[in-house]
Amino acid sequence: MTFEGTKTEADLKTLCEMLTYARPAGSRSEKKFINRFIRPLGAKADAYGNYILKIGDGPVCFSSHTDTVHKSGGKQRVTITTDYMMKLPMLSQSNCLGADDTSGVWLMCELIRAKVPGLYIFHREEEVGGTGSSYIAKRTPELFEQIKCVIALDRKGRHDVITHQGGARCCSGAFADSLISGLGIEHLAKSDGGTFTDSANYTGIVGECTNLCVGYYDQHSSKETLDAEFMAEMRDALIRLDQSKLVFERKAGDVDPDDWSWMDDGLYGSSYYRGGYKSYSYNKGTAVTKLDKGGWSALHDDDDVDDIWDAGHRIPDMETIVERNADAVTDILRDCGYDENSLMREIYDRLGTLNI
């Protein structure tokens, strides 16, 4: 198909062109991408290399990241199907499409062009530890003095408004509901199954921090695709969003007593996870139960996780955890840079055999 005849098609052509840039963190192609698509909008770099722009005095911060998990920088070919799905050509040598998070960058560029009020942060180095957002959280938190919520545009699929990242609450249910209502997109729903994106590093500074779905699938793999038609729908919904009707309920730094987390303070350079301590619990119905508040809330970084369990309660073995949390483990492996081929190779190299 062609991108000719309508404004939407012209905008989606720009999205397709953005996807041709393979952008490992700190690569020359990432810099070229920023120079071509982000700097002309007026965004300025901070001391770490995050690009920031503010429009008006609205309560919303929009977040995305400019790096991808490509193994090498440069240009790649991108194809689009008759049903507006963007993907790599069949014989492509690239290890991923890079819609994570080119989709979020494109959406933010579109919102800026539409002069939607907000603080816009194009983060660097999300894919290698969230160090760009960690820098802002630690060094320049004053950026968020008037900000009530951070909406990261970096979630897979077409359904999720994330309320928890790594098992820990990042926004209230009331805020998520108000965002879903305001966007008016069919099938959007709250999800507590988020892993990590930059907004997680701001939950100690900003009360409501979420991650919003932006239409990509099979991220961090050569099978990655992007639903460009959904992207256009999300773009239009975000432009129409009445920010004055968003509900801000969670307070910055709040810890939900029902939280569990597999991420320690500092794993992503984060000031967010427990503010310097760790807490753990497991799904109800398992043999492991969470201690009462007095038992786990004082666990500090130098304590062993076994110390939080009463006698007779044991942490499940690794195989059980993987089996019962297959979707989350899959996301973790992809966040670490594995796709199907590299994971099979890793298993074969270790064991000399492979069960498929």
What percent strand? 15-25%
> Which architecture name of the largest domain does CATH use?
3-Layer(aba) Sandwich
> Number of DSSP strands?
16
Principal-axis shape: globular
Structural class: alpha/beta
Query: How many structural domains?
Result: 3
Sequence of secondary-structure elements: HEHEEEEEEHEHEEEEHEEEEHHHHH
CATH topology of the largest domain: Aminopeptidase
Helix-strand layout with pairing:
Blueprint: H1 7-19, E1 21-22, H2 28-37, E2 44-45, E3 51-55, E4 60-65, E5 74-75, E6 79-80, E7 85-87, H3 99-113, E8 118-123, H4 131-139, E9 149-155, E10 160-162, E11 164-165, E12 168-169, H5 173-183, E13 189-191, E14 208-213, E15 216-217, E16 225-227, H6 228-240, H7 293-296, H8 318-324, H9 326-335, H10 340-351
Parallel strand pairs: 4-8, 4-9, 9-14, 10-13
Antiparallel strand pairs: 1-5, 2-3, 3-8, 6-7, 7-16, 11-12, 15-16
Helix pairs in contact: 1-3, 3-6
Q: What distinguishing features does this structure have?
A:
single chain, 356 residues, alpha/beta, Aminopeptidase, 3 domains, six-stranded mixed sheet, four-stranded antiparallel sheet, globular
Structure description:
This protein has three domains: 7-245, Zn peptidases (Aminopeptidase, 3-Layer(aba) Sandwich), CATH 3.40.630; 277-314, no CATH class; 316-356, no CATH class. The chain is 29% helix and 16% strand. It has ten helices and 16 strands. It has helices at 7-19, 28-37, 99-113, 131-139, 173-183, 228-240, 293-296, 318-324, 326-335, 340-351, and strands at residues 21-22, 44-45, 51-55, 60-65, 74-75, 79-80, 85-87, 118-123, 149-155, 160-162, 164-165, 168-169, 189-191, 208-213, 216-217, 225-227. A six-stranded mixed β-sheet has the order 2-3-8-4-9-14, covered by helices on one side. A hairpin with a 7-residue loop joins strand 15 (216-217) and strand 16 (225-227). Helix 1 (7-19) crosses helix 3 (99-113) and helix 3 (99-113) runs parallel beside helix 6.
